[in-house]
């Protein structure tokens, strides 16, 4: 049987678990939840965690601007966690990405960390350390597009696009237009993604 173009675009074991429309709906819902929990988006800062968390934070900031009228540029930033990871000695060197803090800073603000996938929780632990070096937020919350379980630390998300029960033998791959040309979330067998960045 010959391969179709769709077969060629993804490994054979890949399953699409979120479509572009579902990703957009999940982000819209999270934006509304953030508005509700911050009394209309007051004193709010969104910090995206590189790499795909930055794109998701930018999309959330646009949605928040549409809801609250507050310019996205006033609340949007990014938080690189590379040098705060606990696996620096074990994994290949990564190039640090920029940390950008919006003009009002983080002191006393409600900071929402934004990432694509929550798994062991180690990236978010590193993010909390990185944030500590920037100032003292009033509240820190976490928004993720996908929570796939298997936490190794006592960390949970406040805003979740989709809870995806997974096996440890699987990988969740979030693809976004900004970095991957299209929006979708895939689950693949780990063997299928060997050699990728996951
Ligand atoms: O909860 P954890 O076990 O820390 O896993 C979640 C992290 O893993 C992925 O990042 P990755 O390090 O693969 O880099 P990427 O963002 O560049 O894909 C994902 O983007 C999360 O940041
Ligand atoms: O499956 C996983 C685990 C960690 N990070 C990801 O992006 N996917």
UniProtKB/TrEMBL annotation:
It catalyses: UMP + diphosphate = 5-phospho-alpha-D-ribose 1-diphosphate + uracil. Pfam families: Pribosyltran (PF00156). One of its GO terms (molecular function) is uracil phosphoribosyltransferase activity. Belongs to the purine/pyrimidine phosphoribosyltransferase family. PyrR subfamily. Regulates the transcription of the pyrimidine nucleotide (pyr) operon in response to exogenous pyrimidines. Also displays a weak uracil phosphoribosyltransferase activity which is not physiologically significant. It comes from Galactobacter valiniphilus. This is Bifunctional protein PyrR. InterPro entries: PRTase-like (IPR029057), PRTase_dom (IPR000836), PyrR (IPR023050), PyrR_bifunctional (IPR050137). It comes from the Bacteria. GO terms for biological process: regulation of DNA-templated transcription. Keywords: Glycosyltransferase, Transcription, Transcription regulation, Transferase. Coiled coil: none annotated. Residues 19-172 form the Phosphoribosyltransferase domain. The keyword Iron does not apply. A motif (PRPP-binding) lies at residues 111-123.
């Amino acid at each position: 049987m010959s391969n179709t173009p769709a077969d060629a675009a993804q490994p054979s074991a890949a399953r699409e678990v979120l479509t572009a429309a579902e990703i957009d709906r999940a982000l819209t819902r999270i934006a509304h939840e953030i508005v509700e929990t911050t009394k209309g988006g007051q004193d709010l800062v969104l910090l995206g965690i590189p790499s795909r968390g930055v794109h998701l934070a930018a999309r959330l900031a646009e949605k928040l601007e549409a809801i609250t009228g507050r310019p996205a540029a006033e609340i949007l930033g990014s938080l690189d966690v590379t040098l705060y990871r606990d696996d620096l000695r074990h994994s290949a060197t990564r190039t640090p990405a920029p940390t950008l803090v919006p003009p009002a800073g983080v002191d006393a603000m409600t900071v929402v960390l934004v990432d694509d996938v929550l798994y062991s929780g180690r990236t978010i632990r590193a993010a909390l350390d990185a944030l500590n070096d920037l100032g003292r937020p009033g509240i820190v919350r976490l928004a993720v597009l996908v929570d796939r379980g298997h936490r190794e630390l006592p960390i949970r998300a406040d805003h979740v696009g989709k809870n995806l029960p997974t096996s440890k033998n699987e990988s969740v791959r979030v693809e976004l237009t900004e970095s991957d040309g299209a929006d979708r979330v895939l689950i693949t067998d780990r063997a299928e993604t060997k050699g990728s960045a996951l």
